[in-house]
DNA sequence: GTCTATACTACGATAGAC
DNA sequence: GTCTATCGTAGTATAGAC
C-alpha cells in the first residue's frame, strides 16, 4: 500500500478508537513507524487528512449504492439501503461522533457533507414513496417530510446515542448496527399496511435473529 | 455576581457560540477582563469548568421539572416536558454538539450524565403510559421501549442535526426549538387514538403557529 | 519519498506579589 | 481575590540532508 493510503487507513482506525481530538499527526506517524516529516510530505495538515477520509467515505457511499440498483422489492430495498448507511457510519464513526464540531470548523467539508445529505434525503424520500405506491406503507403526503427527517436523525445519531448510553466505553459491533436497524423498523411500523404486515414482521424477526446471533457470537469470542 | 459565577456564564456563552474546543481558559479570562491566574483560582482547569456547567444544567433540569408537577392533562404534560428539555438542550448546546467526545474523555461526567438519562427515560416512559391509560395514545407494550428511545434520540440530537443541515452557520432560535417539538408530534402522531385526534391536532397547530410567529419575529428584527 | 532536527506557537498551569 | 510574570509541554509545521 502506498504511504498516503496507509496514513488514511491508520488515521481512520486511530480516530475511531481514541477520538479525532486525541490523535495528533505525531501519533499517526508514530503508529505507522514513519516520521512526522514524511506525513507532512503527503498531507498539508490534519484537516487535509480528514478531508481525504471524507472523500473515501463519499466514494464508498456511491459505490455501495451502485451495487444496490437491481430492482428488488421496495421493502428489501430500503432495508438494504439502511444497512449500508449504518455500516458506513460505523466505519467512519469518529466523524459522526463529532459531526457539528467537525463541520463547523471546516466549511469546505460542510459544503460537501450538505450536498451528499441532500441526495440521501432525496433517495430516502423517493424510497418511501415507492413503498407507498406498492401499498406496503401508507404515508400521507404531509407526513412524508417529517418521517424522512426522523429516519435521517435516527440513522445519523444512533451510534452517538449508543456511546452516550453505555456505561463503560462501548464496543461498536454488528449487534449495535442491527439494533439501530430495528429502530428503523420501529419508526416505519405504524405506517405498514395490513396487507404488508406479515412480510414486515417477518423481516423484522430476521433482523432480531441477526442481532441475537451477533450477540451470542460476541460472547463466544 | 461572584467571579466564579461570571466564569460559568461566560464559558457557556463562549462555548455555545464558538465551540468548546475553540475556547481556552485564556479566552474566557480575556472575555471577562480578568487574569488567567484569577480564573485558575476559581477552577482547577477547563474540565472543572465544564463539570460545574453540567451541575448548573442538572440543577436547572430538576427545578424546571418541579414546577411541572401540577396535575394537568397528560398531553399538555408531555408537551411541556419536551419544551423544557429542548430549551435546556439549547441553553447548553455546546455540550450536546459534542456529546460522545465530551463524555468519553470525562468518565465522572459520563456517570452523572448516565444517571440523569436513566431518570429521564423513566419519566418519558411513564408519561407515555399515562397517555395510554388516558386513551390519548394507543401504544402496545412491546412498542413502548422503542418509542421512548426514538423520542430520546430526536430530542437529544435535534439541534445537532439542524447544525449539520443549515448551509451557513445557523442561529439556534425559538423557531428551531418549536420545529424540534413538531418532530415529537410527528413521532407520536401514528399512535394517537381517534378520540384524542382533534385535541392532538389542535395542539400541533398551536405549535405550528408559535413556530411561524418566531420566524416572522426573527425577520422583523 | 523519507529521515532528522528544529522552530514556532498556543495552551495549560503555577508562583509570588499585592 | 486578583494581578503579573513566567514556565513547561504538546502539537503543528518546515528546512535541509539523504
Automatic annotation (TrEMBL), chains A, B:
Residue ranges flagged as DNA-binding region: 24-43
The source's domain of life comes to Bacteria
This protein's record includes keyword DNA-binding: yes
**Residues annotated as domain HTH tetR-type:** 1-61
Question: Per its record, how is this protein called by name?
Answer: TetR/AcrR family transcriptional regulator
Its lineage reads:
Bacteria, Pseudomonadati, Pseudomonadota, Gammaproteobacteria, Alteromonadales
Tell me which InterPro entries the record gives. Homeodomain-like_sf, HTH-type_Tx_Regulator, HTH_TetR, TetR
Organism of origin: Thalassotalea fonticola
Give the PANTHER family listed for this entry: ACREF/ENVCD OPERON REPRESSOR-RELATED (PTHR43479), TRANSCRIPTIONAL REGULATORY PROTEIN (PTHR43479:SF12)
Question: Which keywords accompany this UniProt record?
Answer: DNA-binding
Amino acid at each position: 500500500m502506498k504511504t498516503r493510503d496507509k496514513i488514511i487507513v491508520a488515521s481512520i482506525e486511530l480516530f475511531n478508537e481514541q477520538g479525532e481530538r486525541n490523535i495528533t499527526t505525531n501519533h499517526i506517524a508514530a503508529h505507522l513507524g514513519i516520521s512526522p516529516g514524511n506525513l507532512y510530505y503527503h498531507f498539508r495538515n490534519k484537516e487535509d487528512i480528514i478531508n481525504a477520509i471524507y472523500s473515501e467515505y463519499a466514494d464508498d457511499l456511491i459505490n455501495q449504492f451502485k451495487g444496490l440498483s437491481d430492482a428488488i422489492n421496495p421493502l428489501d430495498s430500503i432495508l438494504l439501503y439502511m444497512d449500508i448507511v449504518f455500516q458506513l457510519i460505523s466505519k467512519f464513526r469518529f466523524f459522526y461522533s463529532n459531526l457539528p464540531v467537525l463541520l463547523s470548523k471546516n466549511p469546505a467539508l460542510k459544503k460537501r457533507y450538505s450536498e451528499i445529505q441532500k441526495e440521501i434525503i432525496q433517495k430516502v424520500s423517493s424510497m418511501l414513496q415507492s413503498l407507498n405506491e406498492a401499498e406496503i406503507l401508507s404515508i400521507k403526503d404531509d407526513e412524508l417530510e417529517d418521517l424522512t427527517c426522523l429516519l435521517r436523525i435516527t440513522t445519523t445519531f444512533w451510534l452517538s446515542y449508543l456511546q452516550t448510553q453505555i456505561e463503560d466505553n462501548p464496543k461498536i459491533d454488528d449487534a449495535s448496527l442491527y439494533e439501530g436497524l430495528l429502530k428503523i423498523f420501529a419508526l416505519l411500523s405504524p405506517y405498514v399496511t395490513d396487507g404488508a404486515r406479515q412480510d414486515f414482521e417477518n423481516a423484522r424477526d430476521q433482523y432480531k435473529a441477526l442481532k441475537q446471533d451477533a450477540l451470542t457470537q460476541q460472547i463466544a469470542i
